């Protein structure tokens, strides 16, 4: 079992001037203690489950570029980028740039998008759900084409690219892992089986339901002729060492591992500090590494 850290909030003491120093400390701690991955949300406004829209929120990909400069080995990704926020060729170029400058440590985390308020607020088109999923599948196809070295045109129902050129290519081989977030059984999990290297699901639905969702994914993999072992199954959820004992948390991660999940991404109680990350590395990580 690998552990990753997601940072969903930047509302910290000291205001905007203190965000960069504190974020750098957290990232360096995560890197040094041996966490596998470091993630930020890709939102322009804070989301309702975390806090009011007016609270501090950093743009995801430029934040990852900052984090790449602060770290040496930890993988970096968005959890997840809404497909509506950027033109697909630009998104793939952005992810490739992060991969090159980080030494091959980028994930492309992507999903169909959902937060209408920030779209309307900043003038980003927010098409109906069916169209967003169609755009998501085309963007996944575009990513694979650009990373294959094939610069031919791409013609889809929603996207038209005359030249899918991507130079320099990514350092990760065969390409940065594509992570799709979501638990929809008919569309999302089918796209995971067809295009993704990793899948992220919500820890909050419970281990039993996570195992059932994974069974649905396995069925889609069978239908696609895909080896399910090629797909990294990940979760996202809180880790509060003040509310639950270390043995309780370790038992939870063991249950996740037994259900087929190999990478648990956690968020720590806010305001997160580097010392909190160091405690996870000291008390939790050694206990779960062998699962």
Short summary of the structure?
The protein is an alpha/beta fold. Helices cover 41% and strands 15% of the residues. The chain has a single domain, classed as TIM Barrel (Alpha-Beta Barrel).
What does this structure look like?
The chain has 291 residues and is an alpha/beta fold. The protein has a single domain (2-141, 167-288), classed as Luciferase-like domain (TIM Barrel), CATH 3.20.20. Helix content is 41%, strand content 15%. The chain has 9 helices and 11 strands. Strand 2 (37-40), helix 2 (60-70) and strand 3 (75-78) form a beta-alpha-beta unit. Helix 2 (60-70) runs parallel beside helix 3 (88-101) and helix 6 crosses helix 7. The model has no long low-confidence stretch (mean pLDDT 98).
- Please identify the structural class as seen in this structure: alpha/beta
Reported by name, the CATH topology is TIM Barrel
Strand order within the widest beta sheet: 3-2-1-11-10-9-8-5-4
Q: Report mean pLDDT, rounded to a whole number.
A: 98
Q: Biggest sheet: strands, sense, closure?
A: 9 strands, parallel
